[in-house]
Amino acid sequence: MAHHPVRFYDLNAAYGEFSNFHAAPVTLDGHVWRTSEHYFQAQKFISDEKHYRHILGLATPREV
User: Distance (Å, rounded) from C-alpha 19 to C-alpha 40?
Assistant: First the structure.
């Protein structure tokens, strides 16, 4: 049986919902994050409130 890799780079293709860019808000650390990419990138600035909040407010994961 052949195995095929699961790819989730294209939001409009199969498995796109597994992408960090998929619009699926999540509540973590007392905030609602628009995508998991927002949360992931904000963690790089956990000690920098200004940048952390800036990322939280960005509209799209591409902006993040």
Answer: 12
